[in-house]
């Protein structure tokens, strides 16, 4: 394997000092424009590639961002990452990716690894850090932005960007209530404690505001022990019988993947959607528009979440002020929900 071309190789070919070549490649005004142009052309012809590590040591900046996600199997995460990547590329930054598999200790380990690799900043999607773990992680002094953090209490040491889970769940529940449903089930996700708590609260408060007393039998939460892959579809399938036993006419699911699982389970049982059971999701992943029937859901601005997280981080890197931000959600009505008056249950 050939050794990479160095500045000294260019200097020998041009019969000048390596200092002259180095200055020319940095476009230093200490070297005449004519000589700079000639040496830069020679470097291109010889296939010279600058040493990014050496440059970063001099500039104290690597133009890389560490990105930590819980899983790459969730289509929601994929869209957020795409938004981050687009904004990073526009700003001339590269991304290094690490997957935590829903494990807070892996999140901290990834943060420490990125710190040693001298990344300029960190973005963590759906951080699982507890308050104690967050305090420990805050000692890793890298500008950090958290997307949809999952802590039971707010993080004090990091900047955050999230959607309004509570109002989104209220919106979904109010929509089902407006369709005439009163017995509305909820299937939640135990491994997203922060957002699940907010969505469950929004669901319950919307029922109470409509004069409907929430029933414990209407609610089922998927187990919190899925670490190494997203199992929301099978959770939706497994939890449907318990919720159906409570004689609900509609089900609001924590996310679209759970709703897809519920849809599959209904098909297996011969339950028609929406005539016998209305189904509502949350996230508005691309799949939601293509399942049969197409899924009514709550839209999260996934690409925008990623773009804004990167924009927030860039401002932090410039020592500009940054405020924590909560984005609104939107109702998307498709074919999986229907007026209660024509339901067959």
Q: Could you explain the architecture of this structure?
A:
With 345 residues, this protein is of the alpha/beta class. The protein has three domains: 7-50, 434 Repressor (Amino-terminal Domain), CATH 1.10.260; 61-163 and 302-328, Rossmann fold (3-Layer(aba) Sandwich), CATH 3.40.50; 165-300 and 331-342, Response regulator (Rossmann fold, 3-Layer(aba) Sandwich). It is 43% helix and 15% strand. A six-stranded parallel beta sheet has the order 2-1-3-4-5-11, sandwiched between helices. A four-stranded parallel beta sheet has the order 7-6-8-9, sandwiched between helices. A two-stranded antiparallel sheet has the order 10-12. Helix 2 (18-25) packs across helix 3 (33-46). It is elongated. The chain starts with 6 loop residues before the first helix and ends in a 13-residue tail after the last strand.
